[in-house]
Protein backbone atom coordinates (compact mmCIF):
# COMPACT_ATOMS: atom_id res chain seq x y z
CA UNK A 1 0.00 0.00 0.00
CA UNK A 2 1.47 3.36 -1.01
CA UNK A 3 1.90 6.34 1.30
CA UNK A 4 -1.07 8.19 -0.18
CA UNK A 5 -3.45 5.29 0.57
CA UNK A 6 -2.02 4.98 4.09
CA UNK A 7 -2.76 8.65 4.68
CA UNK A 8 -6.38 8.32 3.50
CA UNK A 9 -7.55 5.70 5.98
CA UNK A 10 -7.67 5.03 9.70
CA UNK A 11 -7.97 1.62 11.33
CA UNK A 12 -10.61 1.61 14.09
CA UNK A 13 -10.55 -1.35 16.45
CA UNK A 14 -12.71 -2.07 19.51
CA UNK A 15 -11.22 -4.16 22.31
CA UNK A 16 -12.78 -5.79 25.37
CA UNK A 17 -10.65 -8.08 27.53
CA UNK A 18 -8.73 -8.83 24.35
CA UNK A 19 -5.36 -9.76 25.87
CA UNK A 20 -5.07 -13.19 24.15
CA UNK A 21 -5.14 -11.66 20.64
CA UNK A 22 -3.13 -8.48 21.15
CA UNK A 23 0.20 -9.82 19.89
CA UNK A 24 -1.30 -10.74 16.52
CA UNK A 25 -3.27 -7.48 16.47
CA UNK A 26 -0.10 -5.48 17.15
CA UNK A 27 1.65 -7.17 14.23
CA UNK A 28 -1.25 -6.23 11.95
CA UNK A 29 -1.63 -2.63 13.12
CA UNK A 30 2.11 -1.92 12.97
CA UNK A 31 1.71 -1.73 9.19
CA UNK A 32 -0.84 1.09 9.26
CA UNK A 33 -0.19 4.79 9.78
CA UNK A 34 -3.41 5.91 11.50
CA UNK A 35 -4.85 3.66 14.23
CA UNK A 36 -7.59 4.36 16.78
CA UNK A 37 -8.35 1.74 19.43
CA UNK A 38 -11.44 2.07 21.60
CA UNK A 39 -11.35 -0.07 24.72
CA UNK A 40 -14.80 -0.96 25.96
CA UNK A 41 -14.15 -1.02 29.71
CA UNK A 42 -11.84 -4.05 29.82
CA UNK A 43 -11.35 -5.59 33.25
CA UNK A 44 -7.93 -7.03 32.44
CA UNK A 45 -4.66 -5.43 31.35
CA UNK A 46 -5.75 -4.94 27.72
CA UNK A 47 -5.19 -1.17 27.78
CA UNK A 48 -1.71 -1.47 29.28
CA UNK A 49 -0.76 -4.10 26.71
CA UNK A 50 -2.09 -1.94 23.86
CA UNK A 51 0.00 1.03 24.97
CA UNK A 52 3.06 -1.17 25.21
CA UNK A 53 2.61 -3.22 22.03
CA UNK A 54 0.91 -0.63 19.77
CA UNK A 55 2.51 2.66 20.84
CA UNK A 56 1.50 4.59 17.71
CA UNK A 57 -2.22 3.96 18.28
CA UNK A 58 -4.53 6.59 19.67
CA UNK A 59 -6.26 4.85 22.58
CA UNK A 60 -9.71 5.81 23.81
CA UNK A 61 -10.61 4.20 27.13
CA UNK A 62 -14.30 3.93 27.87
CA UNK A 63 -15.38 3.56 31.51
CA UNK A 64 -17.86 0.82 30.67
CA UNK A 65 -18.90 -1.62 27.96
CA UNK A 66 -21.49 0.23 25.89
CA UNK A 67 -21.47 -2.26 23.04
CA UNK A 68 -19.65 -2.85 19.77
CA UNK A 69 -21.52 -0.23 17.77
CA UNK A 70 -21.28 2.58 20.32
CA UNK A 71 -17.54 2.06 20.67
CA UNK A 72 -17.00 2.07 16.91
CA UNK A 73 -19.05 5.26 16.62
CA UNK A 74 -16.83 6.89 19.22
CA UNK A 75 -13.75 5.87 17.28
CA UNK A 76 -15.15 7.17 13.98
CA UNK A 77 -15.90 10.54 15.56
CA UNK A 78 -12.17 10.97 16.26
CA UNK A 79 -10.89 10.40 12.73
CA UNK A 80 -10.39 12.79 9.83
CA UNK A 81 -9.57 10.39 7.00
CA UNK A 82 -11.71 9.60 3.98
CA UNK A 83 -11.96 5.91 4.80
CA UNK A 84 -12.08 3.88 8.02
CA UNK A 85 -11.17 0.21 8.36
CA UNK A 86 -13.37 -1.33 11.05
CA UNK A 87 -11.33 -4.27 12.29
CA UNK A 88 -12.11 -6.83 14.98
CA UNK A 89 -9.17 -7.46 17.34
CA UNK A 90 -9.04 -11.13 16.31
CA UNK A 91 -8.93 -10.33 12.59
CA UNK A 92 -5.76 -9.94 10.52
CA UNK A 93 -5.41 -8.29 7.12
CA UNK A 94 -2.45 -7.26 4.98
CA UNK A 95 -2.02 -3.65 3.78
CA UNK A 96 -2.16 -4.87 0.17
CA UNK A 97 -5.65 -6.27 0.77
CA UNK A 98 -6.76 -2.98 2.35
CA UNK A 99 -5.33 -1.11 -0.64
CA UNK A 100 -7.51 -3.25 -2.89
CA UNK A 101 -10.56 -2.38 -0.78
CA UNK A 102 -9.68 1.32 -1.04
CA UNK A 103 -9.32 1.00 -4.80
CA UNK A 104 -12.80 -0.52 -4.89
CA UNK A 105 -14.29 2.46 -3.05
CA UNK A 106 -12.36 4.82 -5.33
CA UNK A 107 -13.76 3.11 -8.43
CA UNK A 108 -17.34 2.99 -7.13
CA UNK A 109 -18.32 6.32 -5.52
CA UNK A 110 -21.81 5.00 -4.68
CA UNK A 111 -20.40 2.23 -2.44
CA UNK A 112 -20.48 2.97 1.29
CA UNK A 113 -18.96 -0.28 2.57
CA UNK A 114 -16.65 -2.86 1.04
CA UNK A 115 -15.48 -5.99 2.82
CA UNK A 116 -12.84 -8.63 2.08
CA UNK A 117 -13.46 -12.35 1.91
CA UNK A 118 -12.74 -13.68 5.39
CA UNK A 119 -11.04 -17.00 6.04
CA UNK A 120 -11.15 -19.09 9.23
CA UNK A 121 -7.86 -20.65 8.17
CA UNK A 122 -6.07 -21.23 4.88
CA UNK A 123 -8.75 -23.55 3.52
CA UNK A 124 -12.03 -22.75 5.32
CA UNK A 125 -13.86 -19.61 4.16
CA UNK A 126 -15.97 -17.47 6.43
CA UNK A 127 -19.48 -16.60 5.31
CA UNK A 128 -18.62 -13.03 4.36
CA UNK A 129 -21.82 -12.06 2.56
CA UNK A 130 -25.44 -13.16 2.41
CA UNK A 131 -28.86 -11.79 1.53
CA UNK A 132 -30.64 -9.77 4.22
CA UNK A 133 -31.43 -11.97 7.22
CA UNK A 134 -35.17 -11.88 6.48
CA UNK A 135 -34.77 -13.09 2.89
CA UNK A 136 -34.30 -16.70 1.68
CA UNK A 137 -30.72 -17.83 2.18
CA UNK A 138 -28.60 -19.79 -0.34
CA UNK A 139 -28.77 -23.54 0.15
CA UNK A 140 -25.69 -25.66 0.73
CA UNK A 141 -22.19 -24.71 1.77
CA UNK A 142 -20.92 -21.17 1.42
CA UNK A 143 -19.24 -20.57 -1.91
CA UNK A 144 -16.58 -17.89 -2.23
CA UNK A 145 -17.58 -15.50 -5.05
CA UNK A 146 -15.18 -15.21 -7.96
CA UNK A 147 -15.72 -11.50 -8.57
CA UNK A 148 -16.73 -8.22 -6.95
CA UNK A 149 -20.39 -8.35 -5.95
CA UNK A 150 -23.16 -6.33 -4.31
CA UNK A 151 -24.51 -7.80 -1.05
CA UNK A 152 -27.27 -7.02 1.46
CA UNK A 153 -25.01 -7.96 4.38
CA UNK A 154 -21.25 -8.03 4.89
CA UNK A 155 -19.49 -9.69 7.80
CA UNK A 156 -18.65 -7.11 10.44
CA UNK A 157 -15.21 -8.45 11.39
CA UNK A 158 -13.51 -6.33 8.72
CA UNK A 159 -15.10 -3.56 6.67
CA UNK A 160 -13.71 -0.53 4.89
CA UNK A 161 -16.31 2.21 5.19
CA UNK A 162 -16.59 5.55 3.46
CA UNK A 163 -16.49 7.93 6.42
CA UNK A 164 -18.89 10.37 4.77
CA UNK A 165 -21.51 7.66 4.24
CA UNK A 166 -21.06 6.20 7.73
CA UNK A 167 -21.49 9.62 9.32
CA UNK A 168 -24.45 10.55 7.12
CA UNK A 169 -26.54 7.59 8.32
CA UNK A 170 -25.56 8.07 11.96
CA UNK A 171 -23.15 5.16 12.22
CA UNK A 172 -24.12 2.04 14.13
CA UNK A 173 -27.45 2.10 15.94
CA UNK A 174 -26.74 1.90 19.70
CA UNK A 175 -29.92 -0.16 20.13
CA UNK A 176 -27.83 -3.16 19.04
CA UNK A 177 -25.40 -3.91 21.86
CA UNK A 178 -23.98 -6.98 20.13
CA UNK A 179 -25.02 -8.86 16.96
CA UNK A 180 -27.15 -7.62 14.05
CA UNK A 181 -25.50 -4.20 14.21
CA UNK A 182 -23.76 -5.05 10.93
CA UNK A 183 -27.06 -6.18 9.37
CA UNK A 184 -28.68 -2.92 10.40
CA UNK A 185 -25.74 -0.80 9.22
CA UNK A 186 -25.73 -2.41 5.76
CA UNK A 187 -29.49 -2.15 5.38
CA UNK A 188 -29.55 1.53 6.39
CA UNK A 189 -26.68 2.20 3.99
CA UNK A 190 -28.78 0.77 1.18
CA UNK A 191 -31.87 2.69 2.26
CA UNK A 192 -29.78 5.88 2.04
CA UNK A 193 -28.67 5.03 -1.50
CA UNK A 194 -25.24 3.53 -0.79
CA UNK A 195 -24.28 0.08 -2.02
CA UNK A 196 -22.42 -2.58 -0.02
CA UNK A 197 -19.91 -4.78 -1.85
CA UNK A 198 -17.74 -7.82 -1.23
CA UNK A 199 -14.28 -7.81 -2.79
CA UNK A 200 -13.25 -11.50 -2.73
CA UNK A 201 -9.80 -10.73 -4.15
CA UNK A 202 -9.00 -9.07 -0.80
CA UNK A 203 -8.55 -11.60 1.99
CA UNK A 204 -8.63 -11.37 5.77
CA UNK A 205 -7.90 -14.03 8.39
CA UNK A 206 -10.60 -14.27 11.04
CA UNK A 207 -10.45 -17.49 13.11
CA UNK A 208 -13.41 -16.30 15.19
CA UNK A 209 -14.28 -16.94 18.81
CA UNK A 210 -10.83 -16.12 20.17
CA UNK A 211 -11.23 -12.47 21.19
CA UNK A 212 -12.80 -13.45 24.53
CA UNK A 213 -12.24 -16.46 26.77
CA UNK A 214 -14.96 -19.15 26.54
CA UNK A 215 -17.10 -19.66 29.65
CA UNK A 216 -20.71 -20.31 30.57
CA UNK A 217 -21.04 -16.65 31.56
CA UNK A 218 -19.65 -15.45 28.22
CA UNK A 219 -22.02 -17.80 26.39
CA UNK A 220 -24.99 -16.48 28.37
CA UNK A 221 -24.11 -12.83 27.67
CA UNK A 222 -23.50 -13.38 23.96
CA UNK A 223 -26.62 -15.48 23.42
CA UNK A 224 -28.80 -13.09 25.41
CA UNK A 225 -27.72 -10.22 23.18
CA UNK A 226 -27.98 -12.33 20.04
CA UNK A 227 -31.64 -13.07 20.79
CA UNK A 228 -32.34 -9.52 21.96
CA UNK A 229 -30.79 -8.00 18.83
CA UNK A 230 -32.69 -10.41 16.60
CA UNK A 231 -35.89 -9.21 18.28
CA UNK A 232 -35.04 -5.60 17.45
CA UNK A 233 -34.09 -6.46 13.86
CA UNK A 234 -37.23 -8.52 13.27
CA UNK A 235 -39.44 -5.76 14.66
CA UNK A 236 -37.71 -3.14 12.50
CA UNK A 237 -37.41 -4.96 9.19
CA UNK A 238 -40.10 -7.65 9.19
CA UNK A 239 -42.77 -6.50 11.64
CA UNK A 240 -44.37 -7.12 14.99
CA UNK A 241 -45.82 -10.48 13.99
CA UNK A 242 -42.42 -11.97 13.21
CA UNK A 243 -40.94 -10.55 16.41
CA UNK A 244 -43.83 -11.99 18.46
CA UNK A 245 -43.45 -15.43 16.87
CA UNK A 246 -39.73 -15.40 17.67
CA UNK A 247 -40.41 -14.47 21.30
CA UNK A 248 -43.06 -17.16 21.60
CA UNK A 249 -40.71 -19.88 20.33
CA UNK A 250 -37.98 -18.81 22.74
CA UNK A 251 -40.28 -18.68 25.75
CA UNK A 252 -41.95 -22.01 24.96
CA UNK A 253 -38.62 -23.86 24.94
CA UNK A 254 -36.72 -21.74 27.46
CA UNK A 255 -37.35 -23.54 30.76
CA UNK A 256 -37.45 -27.16 29.53
CA UNK A 257 -34.33 -26.76 27.37
CA UNK A 258 -32.37 -24.98 30.10
CA UNK A 259 -33.39 -27.58 32.68
CA UNK A 260 -32.56 -30.51 30.40
CA UNK A 261 -29.08 -29.27 29.55
CA UNK A 262 -28.42 -28.39 33.19
CA UNK A 263 -29.33 -31.94 34.23
CA UNK A 264 -27.02 -33.29 31.54
CA UNK A 265 -24.26 -31.00 32.91
CA UNK A 266 -23.91 -29.30 29.54
CA UNK A 267 -23.32 -25.82 30.92
CA UNK A 268 -22.68 -24.06 27.61
CA UNK A 269 -25.99 -25.26 26.13
CA UNK A 270 -27.87 -24.47 29.35
CA UNK A 271 -26.37 -20.96 29.37
CA UNK A 272 -27.32 -20.46 25.73
CA UNK A 273 -30.96 -21.36 26.31
CA UNK A 274 -31.16 -19.36 29.51
CA UNK A 275 -29.83 -16.33 27.62
CA UNK A 276 -32.30 -16.81 24.77
CA UNK A 277 -35.24 -17.22 27.11
CA UNK A 278 -34.37 -14.23 29.25
CA UNK A 279 -34.02 -12.12 26.11
CA UNK A 280 -37.49 -13.21 25.03
CA UNK A 281 -38.87 -12.33 28.45
CA UNK A 282 -37.22 -8.90 28.42
CA UNK A 283 -38.63 -8.21 24.96
CA UNK A 284 -42.11 -9.40 25.93
CA UNK A 285 -42.32 -7.14 28.99
CA UNK A 286 -39.93 -4.37 27.86
CA UNK A 287 -37.52 -5.03 30.74
CA UNK A 288 -34.84 -2.61 29.57
CA UNK A 289 -33.33 -2.31 33.02
CA UNK A 290 -32.34 -5.97 32.97
CA UNK A 291 -30.99 -5.77 29.42
CA UNK A 292 -28.78 -2.80 30.26
CA UNK A 293 -27.12 -4.70 33.11
CA UNK A 294 -26.16 -7.78 31.09
CA UNK A 295 -22.68 -6.90 29.85
Automatic annotation (TrEMBL):
Residues 10-166 form the Glycosyltransferase 2-like domain. Pfam families: Glycos_transf_2 (PF00535). The keyword Transferase applies. GO terms for molecular function: transferase activity. Keywords: Transferase. SUPFAM superfamilies: Nucleotide-diphospho-sugar transferases. This is Glycosyltransferase family 2 protein. The lineage of its organism: Bacteria, Pseudomonadati, Pseudomonadota, Gammaproteobacteria, Lysobacterales.
Amino acid sequence: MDDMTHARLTVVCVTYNSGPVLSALAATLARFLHVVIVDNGSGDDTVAQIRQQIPHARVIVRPDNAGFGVANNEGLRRIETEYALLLNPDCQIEPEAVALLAQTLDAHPDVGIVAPQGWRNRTVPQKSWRPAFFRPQPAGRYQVPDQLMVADWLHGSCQLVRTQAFTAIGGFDPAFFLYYEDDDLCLRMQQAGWRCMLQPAAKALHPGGVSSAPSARTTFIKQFHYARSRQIALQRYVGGGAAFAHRARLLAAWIPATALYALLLRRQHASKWFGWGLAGLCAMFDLRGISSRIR
